[in-house]
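Hi C.,

You asked whether I'd gotten around to modeling the 48-residue construct. I have! Everything is below, sequence then structure, no commentary in between.
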Amino acid sequence: MFDLDLESIGQIVASILIIAFFLVALYRRRFKVNKKKNDGEQDYLHWL
């Protein structure tokens, strides 16, 4: 059971890291595009 727990934790961590990487890339692109539009969006993205 301990090995299974380690495998499941590893898969969860890997998936979270991959999702976080894509989210950061998308938010950086949106931040660069929307930099001049809206201060509210900047604060929201910075807060995330």
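If it helps when you're writing up: The radius of gyration is 16 Å.

Thanks,
B.
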